[in-house]
Design brief:
Keywords: Signal. InterPro entries: PELPK1_2 (IPR044659). The structure is a single chain. It is built from two helices and no strands. By secondary structure, the protein is mainly alpha-helical. It is flat.
Length: 151
């Protein structure tokens, strides 16, 4: 929390430094006015001569690669048929006496009738216009189901 409270103080310090720290420009102007004028500018700088570029040698022709003869691929050997042994049957489990499962008794829930929902004041009931059908290429159209009948 201390860092958020020091943020405005830091912004104020930075603003004061920017406003009050610009006083050095007056000193720079007075220093420029008080000093003797510098010597005349030097003569124009001569242009740099362009270096000579050697000619690019021609690339020799690549010799043609002779065609290679590939030996034929041997045939895949056939896998002999294997006889799979039969799966033995699982012996029957002896009947174990299990204790009876107690019945779950559910408490009776009283039937309560709810009062009707009051209407929200200030919000008018608005009927919306029917939605225009739009056809989008590549999207199949699905008909809307009819609204349920009012009770």
């Amino acid at each position: 929390m201390a860092s958020t409270s020091s943020l405005p103080v830091m912004a104020l310090v930075v603003a004061l430094m920017l406003v009050l720290g610009s006083g050095t420009c007056h000193a720079a102007r007075r220093l420029a006015d008080a000093t003797a004028p510098s010597a005349a500018p030097a003569a124009a700088i001569p242009a740099v001569p362009k270096p000579t570029v050697p000619a690019v040698p021609t690339v020799p022709q690549i010799p043609a690669v002779p065609a290679v003869t590939v030996p034929p691929i041997p045939a895949v050997p056939t896998v002999p048929a294997v006889t799979v042994p039969t799966v033995p049957t699982v012996p029957a489990m002896p009947g174990a006496a299990l204790p009876p499962v107690p019945a779950v008794v559910m408490p009776a829930v009283p039937k309560v009738s709810l009062p009707p929902m009051p209407a929200v004041p200030g919000i008018p009931k608005v009927t919306l216009p029917p939605m225009a059908s739009m056809s989008i290429p590549g999207v199949p159209t699905i008909p809307f189901l009819a609204p349920p009948p009012k009770a």
